[in-house]
Amino acid sequence: MPQLTALDAQFLHFESPTTAAHVAGVAILEGGAVTVDSLAALLTERLHLSPALSQRLTGLPYGLDRPHWAPDPDFDLSHHLAEHTLPAPGDELRLAELLARLHERHLDRDRPLWEMHLVKGLSGGRVALYTKVHHAAIDGVSGAETLAALLDLGPEPRAVDRPAPGRRAEGPHPVELITAALTGALAQPANTARSLAVAASELDAIPLLSALPGAARLAGAARRLLGDDRPRPELPPLAAPRTPFNGPITAGRRLAFGSIPLKEVKQVAKGFGVTVNDVVMAVCAGALRSWLKEREALPEQPLVAAVPVACRTAGGLDRAGNQLAMLAVPLATDVAEPRERLAAVREATGTAKRRLAMAQGNWLAELCGLLPTALGRVATAPLSRLAASACPPINILISNVPGPQFPLYLCGARVLSYFPISVLTDLGGGVNITCFSYDGMLDFGLVSCPTRVPEPEGLLGHLHSAMKELVTLEEAAGDEFRHRVEVDGVPG
């Protein structure tokens, strides 16, 4: 059975009484035949399409080595499915309150690390399906693929081939675990040296560390030692300023959901010659700027956002876990004019992407592998909390996951929206913005720590305002262009 990578294990190490390291999503469905029983039947039929759903952690005591994934011999769907009914009037606010309580709760590590909660009583006869899976098991892309295994292109469920009968797979033998742990311990010094060299070669791209004196020179020297003397695009220092939503978090959570028409995002992207992701980042920058300005807490320096980038190749469901890198990007929250802010975000994001394409390795994964597993298990959470108090490396984590642009169905019911909900950690700040594009809409899920951002729906309102601002600017620029063509007879 596969062993967790150092990056996968890091999500286990991050967990503490104030941090639950699972990712989740809320599918809003048309009413109909969606019940716990119909969900159980669907999962029973298709569980083999998503290996992560039937595997649990197994390993040596005291975290002496990274755990392995192994089939759960006592797997029982009833441990993973639950049903709830909202009180009247069944609006989005009451749904967010219920799901926030569910999102606060840690998953049971003695079982496969996921849960599904069916929520009835939504207005208009709708139902919601909240699904959470531990981040050690999936990243954003594999999470979307896991969900897709349960979905259909029409109300009629598709036929699914059953796996060929055979002997049930078993977990690793204790002798195998001990052998792997000893092998890993012997290789740790060499692995640490390699990880240090790779991480040093990207020192000027790592948040906080890039602001250290001489970081760029040291990174260049490390690259030359690795035999890579290609010139790199220069990155700005990535020092996160102080904001109200940075610092140690509590165990409480607040949620907010909202959608923006994808055609508006594409309209702005086309009109200003940028990408859809550039627009998403600029909208988030505008919203964060407005939220901070309202509270007279807008720093002079730009906020620093961490942006996960999928590195998963074809066949992403073949292995549980994470295959992602991280971009650190200045958000241009110090730029007042929206069009200039969009241009600055585009430049910063483009530079960060070019640097990532030239990187010798994945600095995020290499940093996770620096410490021996047993030490990382006990040190990660307290060190993260200490760093959040002293010098947080980033201000916020923003993720944009592409999805299908056609309707999907679950148990015969159409999926109307899908709102992603991510992880809060001390290092990542007290608010997280994740969006998922689906069937012509960009669905946003915001999760916050109530002591940092008590009402994330306020920030959601600023997202809508920032989008409207860019649409208005693009339309005005288009009108001006058309007027010039009519008057002068030539474009430009």
Which key features would you list for this structure?
492 residues; alpha+beta; 6-stranded mixed sheet; 14 strands; globular
Tally the helices: what do you get? 12
Percentage of residues in helical conformation: 25-40%
Compute the number of strand runs: 14
Average per-residue pLDDT, rounded, comes to: 88
Low-pLDDT segments: none
Detailed description of the structure:
With 492 residues, the protein is α+β, with helices and mostly antiparallel strands. The protein is built from twelve helices and 14 strands. Strand 13 and strand 14 form a beta hairpin. Helix 7 (262-272) packs across helix 8 (276-294). It is globular and about 60 Å long. The chain starts with 5 loop residues before the first helix and ends with a helix. The mean pLDDT is 88.
Task: Indicate the topology.
Layout: H1 6-13, E1 22-29, H2 36-46, E2 55-58, E3 68-71, E4 81-85, H3 92-104, E5 114-120, E6 127-134, H4 140-148, H5 174-201, H6 215-225, E7 254-261, H7 262-272, H8 276-294, E8 304-310, E9 324-330, H9 338-358, H10 363-368, H11 373-390, E10 396-401, E11 409-410, E12 413-421, E13 431-438, E14 441-448, H12 456-488
Parallel strand pairs: 4-5, 8-10, 10-13
Antiparallel strand pairs: 1-6, 1-12, 2-3, 5-6, 7-14, 8-9, 11-12, 13-14
What's a concise summary of this model?
The protein has 492 residues and is an alpha+beta fold. Helix content is 38%, strand content 18%.
